[in-house]
Amino acid sequence: MTDTPAPSMATPSMPTSVPVADEDADWSDAAWELAAAQQTAAPAPPPAAEAAAMAEAMQQALGGETKTLSQEEIDRLLNFGAPEGGGPEMSAIQRLVSSTTVNKDRLPMLDVVFDRMVRMLNTSLRQFASTNVEASLSKIEWLRYTDFQDAIELPALIGVARAEPWDNQMLVTIDSALIYCMMDVLLGGRRSRPGRIDGRAYTSIERKMTERMMKVVLQDLGQSFDPLAQVDFVFDRLEVNPQFATITRATNAIIRVRIAVEVERRTGHIDIVIPYATLEPIRGKLVQMFMGEKFGHDTVWESHLKNELMRSKLELVAVLAETKVPLGEVLAWQKGQSLKLRINPDSTVLVFSKTIPLFAGHMGQRNDNIAVKIDTDLDTKQELIDGLLSH
Are the C-beta atoms of 294 and 287 separated by less than 8 Å? Predict the structure, then answer.
């Protein structure tokens, strides 16, 4: 007696969710119809690009391999892409509220100041580390204070300093790579490739060394501003939590200056953060295009122009008296009619240049000519000269 194999039957695909009353219960026609209806009403599968990205991410996760997704892949997974089909445009108010850009003024002198600071910092850091140090200006950017806080890598050492004459504050941060490099150089450690940064908290020795280095940076920064204004950046405190180092509102504009520093073939950077309001006292000098001896204020030319104006001829008008007359009476005046001003020889006479009163005196006669004896200076001559210079 031979065993005959059972005939093979095609097994239908199981639906995602079906009503199951019992594990051993047979599928009835009604159950199959209900399952088919649910499968037909199921949501449509995701697009091919999103499905491929999801499958790839799941495969990497199940396989135990780590992969960093790009921003485009993350946007596709979370459906953060731009809406297709021309969605409704944002209103002007919505664009203004959601804007992350910072409107900035051009400050040409700021580039000159920090370029001068980098040259001074090269010398100062070489003396500080007793080795070859190369500092270079990486970039100067305008952004909001909250964006700077979000970009700080922890653990961090943030130095808070005061700008004494300007009555405001600023920040100086040094990244971990530069701190560890300076520690190796100053304490006689290995001068080779840097080790892996483990993210541990900074020791007291590292904090003291970083504080000394920040004071060197602040001293050079103050000397760089000397041609523009006398300012002293005084170190205030050292913080490890960015929230405790808040010096301005989150939405206020700041200027972040990044200086790249290379020590023993190891690189790091120093960030100098200055709120825009801190530079307001010298904003008029920072917007100049060229740095002269007086930053565009030519005293020689102004003195020459003032002397030439003093030699120029000026038409003056002496007003004996003033009176108010109704318009109806003025319209009724006839030719040859006299107007009584009710003045006497001791009345004060005002001398005008256009509409600016210059002097006050008394009317008299000298060498058969009518003259005015000036008794009082009305202190408006400088106003007249300023008006002529402005034109």
Answer: no
Q: At what angle do helices 176-186 and 108-129 cross, to 10 degrees?
A: 30
Per-residue pLDDT of the chain (391 residues; tens, 9 = 90+): 445 444 444 444 444 444 444 444 455 555 556 655 555 554 555 455 555 666 665 565 555 555 666 766 666 665 544 444 444 555 655 555 555 444 555 777 888 889 999 999 999 999 998 888 899 999 888 888 888 888 888 888 899 999 888 888 999 999 888 888 888 888 876 655 555 556 678 888 989 999 999 999 999 999 988 888 888 899 998 988 888 888 888 888 888 999 999 988 888 899 999 988 888 888 878 877 655 445 456 678 888 888 888 888 888 888 887 888 889 888 888 888 888 777 777 778 888 888 888 888 888 888 888 888 888 877 766 666 666 555 5
Distance CA 271, CA 139 (A): 10
- The structure tokens listed for 31 are 């159950």
Residue 318 one-letter amino acid? A
Structure tokens at 73: 């892949």
